[in-house]
UniProtKB/TrEMBL annotation:
Pathway connected to this protein: Carbohydrate degradation; 2-deoxy-D-ribose 1-phosphate degradation; D-glyceraldehyde 3-phosphate and acetaldehyde from 2-deoxy-alpha-D-ribose 1-phosphate: step 2/2
Sorted UniProt keywords: Lyase, Schiff base
Family as reported in the entry's similarity comment: Belongs to the DeoC/FbaB aldolase family. DeoC type 2 subfamily.
Biological process per Gene Ontology, one example term: carbohydrate catabolic process
Catalytic activity as recorded in UniProt: 2-deoxy-D-ribose 5-phosphate = D-glyceraldehyde 3-phosphate + acetaldehyde
Protein name: Deoxyribose-phosphate aldolase
Record gene name: deoC
C-alpha cells in the first residue's frame, strides 16, 4: 500500500521504471576495461574506500592498525584511501593517527545500525563524535517512520542531524533493503537531498542487513542525484555500502557513475565505497597488473571488518 504522503512525493519526483533500472544495471556487467584504463580505475577505487571496522570487539590497537593501512595500503604508488570509519567511541583514537593526513575520519552515529534511540540521544552522539574529531558522520534514517508515511518526520530528523554535524560532512544511510522498493528508495533519496548541503552523501546501506549495495539500488540513487542536480544545481555525493567485495564489482559501479553522472563524480568527494573487504582485492588486482602474476588472498593483511 502506498501511503498518501509518499504518493504525493512520487507524483512530484516521478516513479521508478524498475525494468529499465535492471536492464541498465545488467549492461554495466558487460563492459570490458583493460590495461591502462583498468589500472586507472583500480587506483581510483582505492581512493574512494572508507576503510571500516564496526565490531563490538574494536580496540584502540585495532583502530591504529586500520589507520596505518589507510595511510599506506601497499608499497609503491598506491594512493591512500578516502577515510577510516569507526564507532563514535573510537574517533579520538583514529584522530591520533590520521588527523591532518588527508585521510578523513568518518563515524557511524544516530544509534547505528537500527536508529532505534530517542532523537535527543542520537543528536548527542553526533555532536560528541564531531567534537572528538570526526570529519564525517554516517547516520541512519528512521525507516519505521518512513513506512508509516511520516515523511516530514523523517526529513526533519535528517535536518536536525545535519545541523548537529556543523562543518562535518553528513552521509545519510537509507538502508535500501528495508525500504523494499525502488520507488521508496527514490523517495527517501529526495527527502534526504532536500535538506543536505552540497558535498553531503546519500548511502545505500549499513552493511548490517542481509542485502546491501547492488547495481540496481545504486542506479536508482545516482539517477535521483542526477535529477536533483539538474533541478537545483546542488551536487550530492553517493556511497554504496556492503557487498562490494571484488575489484570487478567496483569497476562496474564506477562505470555506472561515469555513464549516469559523468566524470565530475569520479572522485572521492562525490563517490565512496563503504566496502573495506574490497581494498585487498583492489591491491591484488593492481599487483597482478604490475607483475603479471595473480596474488593469493593472504598476500595482503586484512585489518578491516564491518562491511
Amino acid at each position: 500500500m502506498t501511503r498518501p504522503a509518499l504518493r504525493r512525493l512520487l507524483d512530484e519526483i516521478g516513479p521508478v521504471d524498475a525494468v529499465g533500472i535492471e536492464e541498465r544495471a545488467a549492461k554495466y556487467t558487460t563492459r570490458s576495461i583493460k590495461k591502462g584504463s583498468k589500472v586507472f580505475g583500480l587506483k581510483l577505487a582505492v581512493t574512494m574506500v572508507d576503510l571500516t571496522t564496526l565490531e563490538g570487539k574494536d580496540t584502540p590497537g585495532k583502530v591504529e592498525s586500520l589507520c596505518q593501512k589507510a595511510l599506506y595500503p601497499h608499497e609503491g604508488d598506491i594512493p591512500r584511501v578516502a577515510a577510516v570509519c569507526v564507532y563514535p567511541s573510537m574517533v579520538k583514537h583514529a584522530a591520533k593517527h590520521v588527523k591532518g593526513s588527508g585521510v578523513r575520519i568518518a563515524s557511524v552515529a544516530t544509534a547505528f545500525p537500527s536508529g532505534q534511540a530517542p532523537l535527543k540521544t542520537r543528536l548527542a552522539e553526533v555532536r560528541q563524535a564531531v567534537a572528538d574529531g570526526a570529519d564525517e558522520i554516517d547516520m541512519v534514517i528512521n525507516r519505521g517512520a518512513f513506512h508509516e508515511g511520516e515523511l516530514s518526520l523523517v526529513q526533519d530528523e535528517i535536518a536536525q542531524v545535519r545541523e548537529a554535524c556543523g562543518e562535518a560532512t553528513l552521509k545519510v544511510i537509507l538502508e535500501t533493503s528495508e525500504l523494499e522498493t525502488y520507488d521508496n528508495i527514490r523517495a527517501a533519496s529526495f527527502l534526504a537531498m532536500r535538506v543536505l548541503r552540497p558535498g553531503d552523501f546519500i548511502k545505500t546501506s549499513t552493511g548490517k542487513t542481509s542485502a546491501n549495495a547492488t547495481l540496481g539500488n545504486n542506479q536508482v540513487m545516482i539517477e535521483a542525484i542526477r535529477d536533483f542536480y539538474l533541478a537545483t544545481g546542488t551536487e550530492i555525493a553517493m556511497k554504496p555500502a556492503g557487498g562490494i567485495r571484488t575489484a570487478k564489482q567496483a569497476l562496474q559501479f564506477l562505470t555506472a557513475v561515469k555513464e549516469t553522472l559523468g566524470d565530475a563524480w569520479l572522485n572521492n568527494r562525490r563517490y565512496r565505497f563503504g566496502a573495506s573487504s574490497l581494498l585487498n582485492d583492489l591491491l591484488r588486482q593492481l599487483e597482478t597488473q604490475r607483475t603479471g602474476a595473480y596474488q593469493a588472498p593472504w598476500t595482503f593483511s586484512d585489518d578491516s571488518s564491518g562491511y
